[in-house]
Amino acid sequence: MTVNPNAFEMAQQQFDHVAEMLNLDPQVREMLRWPMREYHFRIPVHMDDGTIRVFEGFRVQHNDARGPNKGGIRFHPAETIDTVRALAMWMTWKCAVADIPLGGGKGGVVIDPATLSVTEKEKLCRGFIQRIWKDIGPRNDVPAPDVGTNPQMMGWMMDEYSKLSGQFTPGVITGKPLGGGGSLGRTEATGFGVVYTIREALKHLKMDPARCTAAIQGFGNVSQYAAIGFIEQLKGKVVCVSYWDRDDRIGYTVSKTDGVDPNFLKTITDQYGSIDKAKAKAAGYVIEDANAWITKEVDILIPAALEGQINAETVRQINPRVKLIAEGANGPTTPEADEEIKKRGIFIIPDFLCNAGGVTVSYFEGVQNDMNFYWTKDEVLEKLDTKMTQAFHAVLEMSEKENVYMRDAAYMVAIDKVVKAMQLRGWL
Ligand SMILES: NC(=O)C1=CN([C@@H]2O[C@H](COP(=O)(O)OP(=O)(O)OC[C@H]3O[C@@H](n4cnc5c(N)ncnc54)[C@H](O)[C@@H]3O)[C@@H](O)[C@H]2O)C=CC1
Ligand SMILES: O=C(O)CCC(=O)C(=O)O
Questions:
Q1: Residue 164 sits in the same domain as residue 191
Q2: Is residue 387 part of a domain?
Q3: Cα(303) to centroid of ligand 1, in Å?
Q4: Are 209 and 348 in the same domain?
Q5: For binding substrate, which residues are annotated in this chain's numbering (predicted)?
Q6: N or C: which end of the chain has fewer CB within 10 A?
């Protein structure tokens, strides 16, 4: 499975393309195609064996015209400043398209968290906050989980910030554990958000979800709940999921023609989204190569692993039956692949619209922290559905009005909101 060599160039290319369509002022473009602030730091950690290891960390704040910067922290061995820049920029567009009053930020540490003990992970999380705590906070930048991080890690980070600032500050981080300032529904939010947008897209395409099949890339937080939601809420069938196998150092696709059971697969999946393939095989699943997911004869593809997965090479493997691509991951499709998808008339729900459910419930979490009053799961998910449905239709309407590709329409909606906020604040 290939990864796009430079996600930031890809994010800038997508932005430049729409900036050109909008005839956006060159100075406004200059402001938006780069992050406003970046922090690069080194985090020393006393390891269990008595040695000291120094980790490289980043936090990028792309634009906070509409509100505090917002976005996850990724722990990944292939993390780079450019990946974090791209992800921060996409967060600005995501919050604008979801119509939540937040800007765009993202963080990262170059590490495979599975190689750390629990104690080392806690020290690394606390070390990250020790480096950056003066530049984050509920009113300027609010991190959250992403690939390789989880609610427990957010709990440690919130605790460290509270200690350093001398005040219990749950709103500094979202995606915290339940009972530790977390919101009900955050775990499911991104995957269920993907499903709400698929439901709306299928209505638009006049397709019956109960007769639809899907192939999913990834089996982590986003993909697990996208699979569960697609099956339980829309009554569709998921024929495969995929994952990265740590031992073999390659990806695999785990398939079942009569449909996978994500609730069963979860029981044989570790906290990093790696499936125990021996147990899957014993339960009647077929193990195929990493790319098999994209070749499946299905109606819907849901890339929900990493960026750059649908590219000039893999796009040619998409089966002619595919009518819809719902981008659960950030940046899964390269600009070259977009051209082919357009040509083939496949409807796309672009990433920063499709996966906005996570940050939307993160926003709800911050609101609940501020109120010190917590909603039920049903209340959270109902509010999430309303937000995602409105966001989908705003983008669809723009796409139809301007006769443009859904990704370009999403950029148009987002750029308009961010530029207006910058103008209202007198920045432009
Ligand atoms: N967790 C969240 O709330 C949100 C996540 N996202 C994006 O969704 C994507 C997935 O995130 P999560 O589910 O949180 O991550 P995760 O770490 O929980 O799961 C990632 C999954 O992708 C698989 N994977 C990783 N590298 C792979 C490879 N090279 N080949 C095949 N499979 C591979 C892993 O095995 C795992 O199953 C990322 O792009 C992330 O930025 C976007 C919005 C919110
Ligand atoms: O929940 C959040 O604040 C951010 C989630 C995130 O990192 C993303 O949407 O890519």
A1: no
A2: no
A3: 9
A4: yes
A5: 70, 94, 362
A6: C
Three-state DSSP class for residue 103: coil
**Six-digit token pair at 201?**
């897209």
Residue of 64, 75, 91, 360 with the most ligand 2 atoms within 8 Å of its CB, for mutation: 91
184: CA distance to ligand 1 center in Å? 21
Choosing from 146, 327, 369 the residue with most ligand 2 atoms within 8 A of its CB, the one to mutate for a pocket test is 146
Which of 324, 354, 384 is the C-terminal boundary of a domain?
354
CB distance 358 to ligand 2 below 6 Å? yes
Q: Which residues lie closer than 8 Å to 397 by C-beta, 6 or more apart?
A: none
Read off the pTM.
Answer: 0.97
Tens of pLDDT along the chain (428 residues) come to 444 469 999 999 999 999 999 999 999 999 999 999 999 999 999 999 999 999 999 999 999 999 999 999 999 999 999 999 999 999 999 999 999 999 999 999 999 999 999 999 999 999 999 999 999 999 999 999 999 999 999 999 999 999 999 999 999 999 999 999 999 999 999 999 999 999 999 999 999 999 999 999 999 999 999 999 999 999 999 999 999 998 999 999 999 999 999 999 999 999 999 999 999 999 999 999 999 999 999 999 999 999 999 999 999 999 999 999 999 999 999 999 999 999 999 999 999 999 999 999 999 999 999 999 999 999 999 999 999 999 999 999 999 999 999 999 999 999 999 999 999 999 99
Nearest ligand to the CA atom of 365:
2
Evaluate whether 176 touches 150 at the Cβ level (below 8 Å).
no
Dist. CA 100 → ligand 1 center (Å): 23
Residue where one domain finishes, among candidates 179, 196, 226:
179
Q: Are residues 119 and 145 in the same domain?
A: yes
**How many angstroms separate the CA atoms of 332 and 352, rounded?**
11
Distances (CA, A) of 349 to 16, 87, 190, 392, 396: 20, 17, 14, 8, 9
Q: Are residues 171 and 74 in the same domain?
A: yes
Which ligand lies nearest to the CA atom of residue 154 in the structure?
A: 2
In this structure, are strands 237-245 and 213-217 parallel, antiparallel, or unpaired? Answer: parallel
Q: Do residues 209 and 170 lie in contact, with contact meaning Cβ atoms separated by under 8 Å?
A: no
Residue 339: partners with Cβ closer than 8 Å, 6 or more residues away: none
CATH number for the domain that contains residue 86: 3.40.50.10860
**121 Cβ closer than 6 Å to some ligand 2 atom:** no
How many domains are contained in the chain? 2
Is 392 contained in some domain? Answer: no
Active site members: 106
